[in-house]
Hints:
By secondary structure, the chain is of the alpha+beta class. It is built from four helices and six strands, in the order ββααααββββ. Strands 1, 2, 3, 4, 5 and 6 form a six-stranded antiparallel beta sheet that branches. β4 and β5 form a beta hairpin. The two termini are 23 Å apart. The mean pLDDT is 94.
Amino acid sequence: MIEHRRYFDEISLGxxxxxxxxxxxxxxxxxxxGLSGDYNVLHTDAxxxxxxxxxxxxxxxxxxxxxxxxxxxxxxxxxxxxxxxxLKWKFKGPIxxxxxxxxxxxxxxxxxxxxxxxxxxxxxxxVLNQRGEVVQEGETEHLVSRRLD
Length: 149
């Protein structure tokens, strides 16, 4: 079965989505360090981090950003011809091993794109931990195809 991909004109301001949860593991952090090459002690040195403000290792901020993107990609209806074109992001709190994250998104703006047949959709996003604390938030922009009649 082929999934219907929504066109720009089918997307409404105010639409919301909340993802299921995903628990961040030590393996996630180790693999992300290897993939990114970021071996900062914040993420890789358990003994050093015991004496830190956080008391333990924390996940890479970009790992949290990546996890929320994947969670919402699985949770939201697909958009036609979508291209990710912009990001404005804030890292507000630590993500620790064992934290369960979920993401929220809301469509906050729509506008014409600079090229024919396309529109830009802006989404406000939040990443929350199991205590409901917002650990990351921001906006993303997506180029979405218009229906060609």
